Protein backbone atom coordinates (compact mmCIF):
# COMPACT_ATOMS: atom_id res chain seq x y z
CA UNK A 1 0.00 0.00 0.00
CA UNK A 2 1.30 3.46 -0.88
CA UNK A 3 2.50 5.56 2.08
CA UNK A 4 0.00 8.39 2.53
CA UNK A 5 2.11 10.61 4.73
CA UNK A 6 5.71 11.79 4.81
CA UNK A 7 8.41 9.65 6.46
CA UNK A 8 11.49 11.69 5.54
CA UNK A 9 13.12 14.12 7.97
CA UNK A 10 12.32 17.82 7.73
CA UNK A 11 16.01 18.64 7.26
CA UNK A 12 16.40 16.30 4.28
CA UNK A 13 13.17 17.50 2.69
CA UNK A 14 14.22 21.14 2.95
CA UNK A 15 17.62 20.36 1.45
CA UNK A 16 15.92 18.56 -1.47
CA UNK A 17 13.58 21.49 -2.07
CA UNK A 18 16.40 24.06 -1.99
CA UNK A 19 18.34 21.94 -4.49
CA UNK A 20 15.49 22.06 -7.01
CA UNK A 21 16.24 24.05 -10.15
CA UNK A 22 12.68 24.41 -11.45
CA UNK A 23 10.81 27.47 -10.14
CA UNK A 24 7.81 26.96 -7.90
CA UNK A 25 4.56 28.90 -7.59
CA UNK A 26 2.97 29.49 -4.18
CA UNK A 27 -0.82 29.19 -4.23
CA UNK A 28 -3.62 29.33 -1.66
CA UNK A 29 -7.22 28.27 -2.17
CA UNK A 30 -10.29 27.24 -0.22
CA UNK A 31 -13.81 26.06 -0.84
CA UNK A 32 -16.77 25.48 1.45
CA UNK A 33 -18.63 22.41 0.17
CA UNK A 34 -19.85 19.12 1.61
CA UNK A 35 -17.30 16.30 1.72
CA UNK A 36 -19.20 13.18 2.78
CA UNK A 37 -16.10 11.01 3.31
CA UNK A 38 -13.20 13.28 4.34
CA UNK A 39 -10.70 10.44 4.90
CA UNK A 40 -11.21 8.93 1.44
CA UNK A 41 -11.14 12.41 -0.12
CA UNK A 42 -7.91 13.21 1.73
CA UNK A 43 -6.13 9.98 0.74
CA UNK A 44 -7.06 10.34 -2.92
CA UNK A 45 -5.99 13.98 -3.04
CA UNK A 46 -2.74 13.24 -1.20
CA UNK A 47 -1.73 10.74 -3.87
CA UNK A 48 -2.58 13.15 -6.69
CA UNK A 49 -0.78 16.07 -5.07
CA UNK A 50 2.29 13.90 -4.48
CA UNK A 51 2.40 13.03 -8.19
CA UNK A 52 2.51 16.77 -8.98
CA UNK A 53 5.24 17.43 -6.36
CA UNK A 54 2.94 19.67 -4.34
CA UNK A 55 4.24 20.87 -0.96
CA UNK A 56 2.37 22.77 1.74
CA UNK A 57 -0.50 22.53 4.23
CA UNK A 58 -3.96 21.25 3.35
CA UNK A 59 -6.84 20.99 5.81
CA UNK A 60 -9.91 18.92 4.97
CA UNK A 61 -13.20 18.73 6.85
CA UNK A 62 -16.78 17.81 6.10
CA UNK A 63 -17.39 21.50 5.39
CA UNK A 64 -14.65 21.86 2.74
CA UNK A 65 -10.95 22.39 2.06
CA UNK A 66 -8.32 25.01 2.90
CA UNK A 67 -4.86 24.89 1.30
CA UNK A 68 -1.60 26.83 1.23
CA UNK A 69 0.76 25.08 -1.17
CA UNK A 70 3.60 25.40 -3.64
CA UNK A 71 3.80 23.53 -6.93
CA UNK A 72 6.42 23.40 -9.72
CA UNK A 73 5.43 26.23 -12.06
CA UNK A 74 5.20 23.80 -14.97
CA UNK A 75 2.52 21.87 -13.04
CA UNK A 76 0.17 24.78 -12.30
CA UNK A 77 -2.13 23.96 -15.21
CA UNK A 78 -2.11 20.28 -14.24
CA UNK A 79 -3.09 21.31 -10.70
CA UNK A 80 -6.06 23.27 -12.05
CA UNK A 81 -7.16 20.27 -14.12
CA UNK A 82 -6.74 17.96 -11.13
CA UNK A 83 -8.98 20.15 -8.97
CA UNK A 84 -11.56 20.48 -11.76
CA UNK A 85 -11.71 16.68 -12.00
CA UNK A 86 -11.72 16.01 -8.23
CA UNK A 87 -15.19 17.38 -7.47
CA UNK A 88 -17.74 19.55 -9.32
CA UNK A 89 -17.53 22.07 -6.46
CA UNK A 90 -13.84 22.64 -7.26
CA UNK A 91 -14.28 23.41 -10.96
CA UNK A 92 -12.91 26.79 -11.98
CA UNK A 93 -11.78 27.35 -8.41
CA UNK A 94 -10.11 30.70 -7.76
CA UNK A 95 -6.43 30.18 -6.95
CA UNK A 96 -4.69 32.98 -5.06
CA UNK A 97 -1.17 33.34 -6.44
CA UNK A 98 1.37 34.76 -3.98
CA UNK A 99 2.50 38.30 -4.75
CA UNK A 100 6.06 38.13 -3.44
CA UNK A 101 7.56 34.67 -3.34
CA UNK A 102 10.34 32.47 -4.67
CA UNK A 103 8.27 29.31 -4.22
CA UNK A 104 10.56 28.05 -1.45
CA UNK A 105 8.11 28.49 1.43
CA UNK A 106 7.18 24.79 1.78
CA UNK A 107 9.18 21.58 1.49
CA UNK A 108 6.76 18.88 2.65
CA UNK A 109 3.11 18.04 1.97
CA UNK A 110 0.99 17.86 5.12
CA UNK A 111 -2.66 17.01 4.59
CA UNK A 112 -4.77 16.79 7.74
CA UNK A 113 -8.37 16.12 8.66
CA UNK A 114 -10.05 18.74 10.82
CA UNK A 115 -13.44 19.18 12.46
CA UNK A 116 -13.67 22.52 10.60
CA UNK A 117 -11.41 24.01 7.94
CA UNK A 118 -11.48 27.18 10.05
CA UNK A 119 -11.97 26.74 13.81
CA UNK A 120 -14.98 28.96 14.48
CA UNK A 121 -16.49 27.72 17.75
CA UNK A 122 -20.01 28.03 16.29
CA UNK A 123 -22.42 25.58 17.92
CA UNK A 124 -25.68 27.08 16.67
CA UNK A 125 -27.21 24.35 14.49
CA UNK A 126 -29.36 26.91 12.65
CA UNK A 127 -26.27 28.69 11.30
CA UNK A 128 -25.87 28.18 7.54
CA UNK A 129 -22.32 29.03 6.33
CA UNK A 130 -23.48 28.95 2.69
CA UNK A 131 -25.59 32.10 3.19
CA UNK A 132 -22.73 34.54 2.81
CA UNK A 133 -22.39 38.22 2.09
CA UNK A 134 -21.75 39.62 -1.40
CA UNK A 135 -18.30 39.50 -2.97
CA UNK A 136 -16.49 42.77 -3.64
CA UNK A 137 -13.92 43.07 -6.41
CA UNK A 138 -10.92 45.41 -6.16
CA UNK A 139 -12.59 48.45 -7.76
CA UNK A 140 -15.66 48.00 -5.57
CA UNK A 141 -13.47 47.76 -2.48
CA UNK A 142 -11.91 51.13 -3.30
CA UNK A 143 -15.33 52.68 -3.83
CA UNK A 144 -16.62 51.34 -0.52
CA UNK A 145 -13.57 52.66 1.32
CA UNK A 146 -14.74 56.18 0.42
CA UNK A 147 -18.31 55.58 1.58
CA UNK A 148 -19.03 57.10 5.03
CA UNK A 149 -21.83 54.55 5.54
CA UNK A 150 -19.44 51.62 5.21
CA UNK A 151 -17.41 49.93 7.95
CA UNK A 152 -14.41 47.75 7.05
CA UNK A 153 -13.74 44.93 9.50
CA UNK A 154 -10.44 43.04 9.66
CA UNK A 155 -11.11 39.37 10.50
CA UNK A 156 -7.46 38.45 11.03
CA UNK A 157 -5.51 38.07 14.26
CA UNK A 158 -4.11 41.11 16.07
CA UNK A 159 -0.52 40.42 14.93
CA UNK A 160 -1.65 40.35 11.29
CA UNK A 161 -3.50 43.66 11.62
CA UNK A 162 -0.48 45.23 13.31
CA UNK A 163 1.71 45.08 10.19
CA UNK A 164 -0.95 45.95 7.60
CA UNK A 165 -4.64 46.70 7.03
CA UNK A 166 -7.08 48.62 4.87
CA UNK A 167 -7.42 52.33 5.54
CA UNK A 168 -9.52 52.97 8.67
CA UNK A 169 -10.43 49.28 9.08
CA UNK A 170 -11.64 48.15 12.49
CA UNK A 171 -9.47 45.65 14.33
CA UNK A 172 -11.18 42.85 16.26
CA UNK A 173 -8.39 42.46 18.85
CA UNK A 174 -8.07 38.73 19.38
CA UNK A 175 -5.68 35.81 18.93
CA UNK A 176 -8.27 33.51 17.33
CA UNK A 177 -11.07 33.55 14.79
CA UNK A 178 -13.43 31.75 17.19
CA UNK A 179 -13.05 34.64 19.66
CA UNK A 180 -13.48 37.26 16.96
CA UNK A 181 -16.91 36.20 15.67
CA UNK A 182 -18.95 37.08 18.79
CA UNK A 183 -16.69 40.09 19.40
CA UNK A 184 -17.45 41.45 15.92
CA UNK A 185 -21.19 41.11 16.49
CA UNK A 186 -20.91 42.98 19.78
CA UNK A 187 -18.56 45.70 18.52
CA UNK A 188 -20.75 46.44 15.49
CA UNK A 189 -24.17 46.08 17.12
CA UNK A 190 -24.94 49.78 16.55
CA UNK A 191 -24.06 49.53 12.83
CA UNK A 192 -26.57 46.92 11.65
CA UNK A 193 -27.92 49.18 8.91
CA UNK A 194 -24.50 50.21 7.59
CA UNK A 195 -22.52 48.41 4.91
CA UNK A 196 -20.24 45.92 6.68
CA UNK A 197 -17.21 44.87 4.62
CA UNK A 198 -15.19 41.97 6.01
CA UNK A 199 -11.77 40.90 4.81
CA UNK A 200 -8.92 38.52 5.65
CA UNK A 201 -5.78 37.12 4.01
CA UNK A 202 -7.24 34.89 1.30
CA UNK A 203 -11.00 35.00 1.86
CA UNK A 204 -11.78 31.89 3.91
CA UNK A 205 -12.27 33.59 7.28
CA UNK A 206 -14.16 36.65 6.05
CA UNK A 207 -16.51 34.50 3.93
CA UNK A 208 -17.64 32.55 6.99
CA UNK A 209 -17.68 35.75 9.07
CA UNK A 210 -19.99 37.40 6.55
CA UNK A 211 -22.46 34.52 6.93
CA UNK A 212 -22.22 34.81 10.72
CA UNK A 213 -22.98 38.55 10.63
CA UNK A 214 -26.03 37.98 8.41
CA UNK A 215 -27.14 35.23 10.79
CA UNK A 216 -26.94 37.76 13.62
CA UNK A 217 -29.18 40.35 12.02
CA UNK A 218 -26.82 42.52 9.99
CA UNK A 219 -28.48 43.54 6.74
CA UNK A 220 -25.80 44.65 4.29
CA UNK A 221 -22.74 42.44 4.56
CA UNK A 222 -19.93 42.12 2.00
CA UNK A 223 -16.56 40.43 1.88
CA UNK A 224 -13.48 41.04 -0.24
CA UNK A 225 -13.25 38.40 -2.96
CA UNK A 226 -10.06 36.40 -2.53
CA UNK A 227 -9.06 38.48 0.47
CA UNK A 228 -6.06 40.80 0.56
CA UNK A 229 -4.04 38.60 -1.80
CA UNK A 230 -6.56 38.75 -4.65
CA UNK A 231 -7.39 42.42 -4.00
CA UNK A 232 -3.74 43.47 -4.31
CA UNK A 233 -3.15 41.31 -7.40
CA UNK A 234 -6.22 42.64 -9.23
CA UNK A 235 -5.56 46.25 -8.19
CA UNK A 236 -2.03 46.03 -9.61
CA UNK A 237 -3.26 44.35 -12.80
CA UNK A 238 -5.87 47.05 -13.39
CA UNK A 239 -3.71 49.98 -12.31
CA UNK A 240 -5.99 50.84 -9.38
CA UNK A 241 -4.81 52.68 -6.26
CA UNK A 242 -3.89 50.16 -3.57
CA UNK A 243 -5.68 51.14 -0.39
CA UNK A 244 -4.15 48.45 1.79
CA UNK A 245 -1.43 49.93 3.99
CA UNK A 246 1.67 47.95 4.91
CA UNK A 247 2.39 44.24 4.74
CA UNK A 248 0.10 41.21 4.45
CA UNK A 249 1.03 38.58 7.04
CA UNK A 250 1.18 35.08 5.54
CA UNK A 251 1.42 31.70 7.27
CA UNK A 252 4.59 30.32 5.73
CA UNK A 253 8.34 30.90 5.93
CA UNK A 254 7.97 34.44 4.52
CA UNK A 255 5.66 35.65 7.33
CA UNK A 256 4.58 38.51 5.11
CA UNK A 257 4.42 39.96 1.61
CA UNK A 258 4.76 43.64 0.85
CA UNK A 259 1.56 45.29 -0.40
CA UNK A 260 2.47 48.97 -0.04
CA UNK A 261 5.70 50.74 0.83
CA UNK A 262 4.44 52.05 4.18
CA UNK A 263 5.83 50.37 7.29
CA UNK A 264 3.27 50.90 10.04
CA UNK A 265 4.54 48.59 12.79
CA UNK A 266 7.45 48.83 15.21
CA UNK A 267 10.07 46.53 16.68
CA UNK A 268 8.70 45.03 19.87
CA UNK A 269 12.08 45.42 21.56
CA UNK A 270 13.35 48.90 20.68
CA UNK A 271 10.41 50.62 18.97
CA UNK A 272 12.18 51.20 15.66
CA UNK A 273 10.04 51.23 12.53
CA UNK A 274 9.85 47.60 11.45
CA UNK A 275 7.26 45.07 10.26
CA UNK A 276 9.28 41.85 10.10
CA UNK A 277 7.86 39.02 12.20
CA UNK A 278 10.15 36.30 13.46
CA UNK A 279 10.06 33.39 15.87
CA UNK A 280 12.42 33.40 18.84
CA UNK A 281 15.31 31.14 17.87
CA UNK A 282 15.23 29.35 21.22
CA UNK A 283 13.51 26.01 20.56
CA UNK A 284 12.01 26.21 24.04
CA UNK A 285 10.21 29.44 23.18
CA UNK A 286 9.55 30.25 19.49
CA UNK A 287 7.63 33.39 20.49
CA UNK A 288 6.24 35.19 17.43
CA UNK A 289 7.14 38.88 17.56
CA UNK A 290 8.45 41.81 15.49
CA UNK A 291 12.21 42.29 15.61
CA UNK A 292 14.41 44.79 13.76
CA UNK A 293 17.88 43.81 12.41
CA UNK A 294 19.65 45.66 15.24
CA UNK A 295 17.75 43.79 17.95
CA UNK A 296 18.14 40.51 16.06
CA UNK A 297 21.89 40.99 16.34
CA UNK A 298 21.73 42.22 19.94
CA UNK A 299 19.59 39.28 21.15
CA UNK A 300 20.94 36.72 18.64
CA UNK A 301 17.49 36.23 17.11
CA UNK A 302 15.87 35.67 20.50
CA UNK A 303 13.19 37.56 22.39
CA UNK A 304 15.37 38.02 25.50
CA UNK A 305 18.77 37.41 27.03
CA UNK A 306 17.20 34.51 28.96
CA UNK A 307 16.31 32.75 25.71
CA UNK A 308 19.65 33.63 24.15
CA UNK A 309 21.49 32.08 27.10
CA UNK A 310 19.27 28.99 27.17
CA UNK A 311 19.93 28.43 23.47
CA UNK A 312 23.66 28.12 24.22
CA UNK A 313 23.20 25.31 26.74
CA UNK A 314 24.06 21.70 25.82
CA UNK A 315 21.27 20.14 23.75
CA UNK A 316 20.39 17.56 26.41
CA UNK A 317 19.90 20.32 29.00
CA UNK A 318 17.77 22.33 26.56
CA UNK A 319 15.58 19.25 25.96
CA UNK A 320 15.20 18.69 29.70
CA UNK A 321 14.05 22.27 30.18
CA UNK A 322 11.59 22.05 27.30
CA UNK A 323 10.08 18.80 28.59
CA UNK A 324 8.10 20.48 31.35
CA UNK A 325 6.78 23.37 29.30
CA UNK A 326 3.47 23.83 27.60
CA UNK A 327 3.88 23.67 23.83
CA UNK A 328 1.09 26.04 22.85
CA UNK A 329 1.59 28.80 20.30
CA UNK A 330 3.26 31.87 21.80
CA UNK A 331 2.47 35.21 20.24
CA UNK A 332 3.48 38.60 21.52
CA UNK A 333 0.35 40.68 22.11
CA UNK A 334 1.06 44.31 22.89
CA UNK A 335 -2.42 44.95 24.25
CA UNK A 336 -2.30 42.01 26.66
CA UNK A 337 1.46 42.10 27.25
CA UNK A 338 1.32 38.32 27.39
CA UNK A 339 4.66 36.71 26.87
CA UNK A 340 6.94 33.80 27.57
CA UNK A 341 5.48 32.41 30.81
CA UNK A 342 7.45 29.17 30.49
CA UNK A 343 10.70 31.05 31.02
CA UNK A 344 9.17 33.37 33.63
CA UNK A 345 9.75 36.37 31.38
CA UNK A 346 7.06 38.92 32.20
CA UNK A 347 7.79 41.24 29.30
CA UNK A 348 9.57 41.13 25.99
CA UNK A 349 13.09 42.31 26.73
CA UNK A 350 13.87 45.70 25.25
CA UNK A 351 17.09 47.57 24.75
CA UNK A 352 17.53 50.20 27.45
TrEMBL record:
GO MF, any single term: transferase activity
Residue ranges of the TM segments: none
Pfam family, one: Rhodanese_C
EC number: 1.14.-.-
Domain Rhodanese intervals: 146-240
Catalysed reaction equations from the record: uridine(34) in tRNA + AH2 + O2 = 5-hydroxyuridine(34) in tRNA + A + H2O
InterPro entries: Rhodanese-like_dom, Rhodanese-like_dom_sf, Rhodanese_C, TrhO, TRHO_N
Similarity comment: family membership: Belongs to the TrhO family.
Protein purpose: Catalyzes oxygen-dependent 5-hydroxyuridine (ho5U) modification at position 34 in tRNAs, the first step in 5-carboxymethoxyuridine (cmo5U) biosynthesis. May be part of an alternate pathway, which is able to bypass cmo5U biogenesis in a subset of tRNAs under aerobic conditions.
Name of the featured protein: tRNA uridine(34) hydroxylase
Source organism phylogeny: Bacteria, Pseudomonadati, Pseudomonadota, Gammaproteobacteria, Enterobacterales
Gene name linked to the record: trhO
Amino acid sequence: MQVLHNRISNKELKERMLAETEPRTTISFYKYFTISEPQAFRDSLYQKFTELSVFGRVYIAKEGINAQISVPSSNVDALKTLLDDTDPALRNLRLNIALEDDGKSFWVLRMKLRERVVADGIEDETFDPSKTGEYLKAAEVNQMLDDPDTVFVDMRNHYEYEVGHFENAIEIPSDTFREQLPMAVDMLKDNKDKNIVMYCTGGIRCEKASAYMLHNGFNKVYHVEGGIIEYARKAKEKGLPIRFIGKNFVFDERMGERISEEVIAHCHQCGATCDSHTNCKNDGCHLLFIQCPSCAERFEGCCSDACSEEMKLPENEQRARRAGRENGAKIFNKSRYRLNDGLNITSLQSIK
